[in-house]
Every structure is written in structure tokens, then in C-alpha cells.
Amino acid sequence: MTWTIDWSRWTTTPYYAFVVIVVACGGIPKGYDEGGYSASVTLASFKNDFDLNASQWVHDATGLANRLANITSFNVLGAVFGALMALALNDRLGRLKTWRLAAIIWATGTFVQVFSSGIYGLLLFARVWGGLGAGMLTVVAPLYLSEVAPARTRGLVVGVYMVILLGILALGFFINYGVSLHMSATRAQYRLVQAFPLIPVCVCFLFSFLLPETPRYLVSQNRHDEGRAVLARLRGQDPLDPSVEAEFAEIDAQARKQLADSASVSYWQAFKETQTNPNYRQRFWLVMALQTIAQWTGGNGITYYISTIFKYAGLSNNSQSLISSGVYGIVKLVVTMAFTWGLIDLLGRRACALTGLALQLAAHVYMAVYMGLGANRSDNAFNRAASDAAVASIFVYAVGWSVGLCTIPYLYGTEVFPTRIRNVSYAISMSLHWAFQFAVVRVTPNMLLGLNIWGAFLFWAAVCFVGLVGLAICMPETKGVPIESMGHLFDGPWYLRWRAKVRQQPLLGNQDDPLPNMKL
């Protein structure tokens, strides 16, 4: 077998690479909140300032859990509304102005958060305000990247956003580890940790004034000459170059079609179609199920409290827990890079989702058994071996999450819907994603306390099992299927969706009126 690499996929210009990196840094607020900020709340300096020491809550453990959950989760609550704001502002202000506005909102919220100085109410307000900007950036940054990337490298370019997000997540744990070793437990300690992401985001904000608006947005605003010039600059070609002309013609045709579709149907009409058209309805609820399962298998809740989870697994030393949390972030980064830049197109969406869920299920089952039966045994040798296995199971979980539901709900949501209902359907799916992420992050401390730790892992395992069975039956493989042919995968009985295949490609017909041209 001979392996060849198409190096043309990686050919780029320095200016184009600069544009991609600057915009992709819009993932820093979300990534650092899951890593750097979530770990900073375990620092002694932060606990002292915001009354999070267990000794102060001896008779009210639930009160402590609620206080910690509010501080951690309110950023995500703001992101729920920020994502919806971005979807409304993207077409009104443009991608680039919306990105800048989101960066300003996040930075001002973060600044107030850093200097809230023990004022609990002010901290919660700042967390929500900063979350608005972070949520906006999770929508506008991937959208900008997808619109400036050539079709053949779109997945790779948008993947840069996830790589930066996960890279800063892992870095945040190591920053916490560094300050815990070399700084005293004063306000300066946690302020340094929480203020760190302001530096790269503010630098990128200044650099953003060297960036252009996307060619697709310019064309949608009838600024065709400007759009053609921007496209040529991004590609490092003359505006009259045949390759630029061909790509611009495709962009223009897509923009015209999208405008025609948008003009013919309102948001409410588009939503009604997702529920009244049986084919659309199956696609819609499958994507909603993916978002739901992704979060309630533990998802980001475990990432936000990973330092605490490692302590439950037997790493009682805070430094060990922070180092392990950093390695956890690195594992997620490496596996997600492998997944985003090749594995998903090699194995397929369905295989990756089911494999990831199976790994998550195995990890949760072991943690539930360990916490319920083995963690308090008097046999020290047994406890050490079981603890090591518990730590290993957390990394197994990280691999499963990264291979499966970390990215697939986003990808599925962008490829299974026709243009006519894509914006509304994707907006609803992302708002559901953020709402469930807020719910999970908010209730995780209470679940761990109220269900004696092991019950929380058993709950997550049950969701994994239900998701594994449900998706195995209802989730078709979309690898290699043109967007125009997606409707054919959702014809026929729902319980045979697992073996649905498009018989031939490309298929003729209108995706809005799917034909029964599928093989079961």
C-alpha cells in the first residue's frame, strides 16, 4: 500500500495564515475559562477571597457547592445569550465587526471579574457579561474561518480554532500550577491567572484592524469588487487569475442562492418546516439529540471540575492534580487534532461517535465502581492500584470525548441541513448546546455531593449507554455524502437509519423534496 500526501491542501500565503490565526484566537476565552479559570477557583488565594473554604461551610455543604457552581457556571449562562446575539449581529454588522464587538464585551467582563476583589455579586455579573462575548466568539470565529477558507481545506482551517481553544485550555492548568508553586496566596496570585488571556486576545483585537471582511459577506452586501479583491489577497493571486475568478464565481452563486432562500422563508416558517416535513424533522431532532447527549454524558462539566475529579481519583496533592489536569488538556488537544485533521474522514462520523461513547461509558462505569466500593477500602495496596486505574480511566474518558461528541454535533449540524433551514436549525442547536452546558456545569458540584460521587458517574454512564444504543440505531453515516444528497439518508423507517446509504453520487433531485433513492 502506498500512502501519498496532497501537499497542495497545506499551501498558503503568510497573510492568509495570519488572518486564520488571529480570528481562531477567538477560541481563547472559551478554552481558558474551561482550563485556566476553572482551575483558579481551587487556588487558596481565590478561596480565601470568595469564601470557598470548606471550614467556613461545615454545616452547609450544599451552600458551598451552590456558591462554587454559580461562580464557575455563570460565564456559560452568558454564553447562551451571546451565541444568539452573534447570529443576529453577523449579518447586520459583518463577521469582522461582530468579532471585535465580542472581544470587547469579553475583555471588559474579564477585567471586572479580575478586580471584583471578593465581591460575590459583582463577580457573578462580570462572569455573565464576559460570557456574552465568549458565546458570540464561538459562533462568529468558526463562521469567519469557514468563509475565508477554500472548500478543500475548510475542515482543516476551522480545526485551527479548536486546536487553539484546547491548547489554551491545557496551558491554563500549567499556569495555575506555576503560580501555586512560586506565588504566595494573595489576590495577585489568582488575578495573574485570570488576567492572562487578556494579553493574547487584546493583541489579536489590535491585529484585527489589519484583517479584511470575508469575501462571502461582502458579496452578500453587493460589494462585489471589494469581495474579489479580498479573495485575491487571501489567495496571494491577481484578481484576474483564473483560479480566483472560478472561486469568486462559486461564492457569488452560493450567496445568490442563500439570499433567495432567505428571502422566501422567515425564521418562523423555517422552524415550522423543520417540524412539519418528516425528513427535516428527523434531521432536526437527531442534531438536538447529539447536543443533549454530548453534554449530559459529563461533557464540559467534567472539564470544568477536572482538578476536583482527579482528587476524587486519589491525587490528594493539589500540585499533582493541576499537573494531571494539564496533561488531560494536552490529551484532548492531541486527540482532537488527529480527529479533526483526518480521523473523522477516515473512519466516518458514526464510527467516531459510537467509539467515543463506548470509551466514555467504560470510564464512567469504572469510576462509579471505584468511588462506590473501592475508594475507602483499608487495603492500601489495593487502593493504590485502584486509584491509578481511576486516574487512567479519566484519560480514557478524555480520548472518548475528543474522538466522539466533542466535535461531531457541530459538524453534523452544519452538513445535514439544507440551506433553507440551516441557519435556524443551527442557531437552535447551538443555543441548546450552551443551555445544557450551563445546566451541567451548574449542577455537577451538587450531583457529586448529593449522589455521593459514585452516583454522578453512574448517571453519566446511563446517559452514555442510552446515547450509544440510540445513535447506533438512528444515526446514519454522512461521510462522503454531498450536502445536496443528505435528504436521502433520512428517507425510510427511522429504525433502519443505521444502515442507510446513498446509492449513487451525485444524486439528482431536490434536497427539499427527498427522493426514495437509498439503499437499506
TrEMBL record:
UniProt keyword Transport, yes or no: yes
Membrane topology term: Multi-pass membrane protein
UniProt domain Major facilitator superfamily (MFS) profile: residue ranges: 19-479
InterPro entries per record: MFS_dom, MFS_sugar_transport-like, MFS_Sugar_Transporters, MFS_trans_sf, Sugar/inositol_transpt
GO cellular component, one term: membrane
Signal found in the keyword field: no
Localisation per UniProt entry: Membrane
Gene Ontology molecular-function annotations: carbohydrate:proton symporter activity
Principal localisation: membrane
Superkingdom to which the source organism belongs: Eukaryota
Coiled-coil blocks: none
NCBIfam families registered for this protein in UniProt: SP
Family label: Belongs to the major facilitator superfamily. Sugar transporter (TC 2.A.1.1) family.
Name of this protein: Major facilitator superfamily (MFS) profile domain-containing protein
Species name: Penicilliopsis zonata CBS 506.65
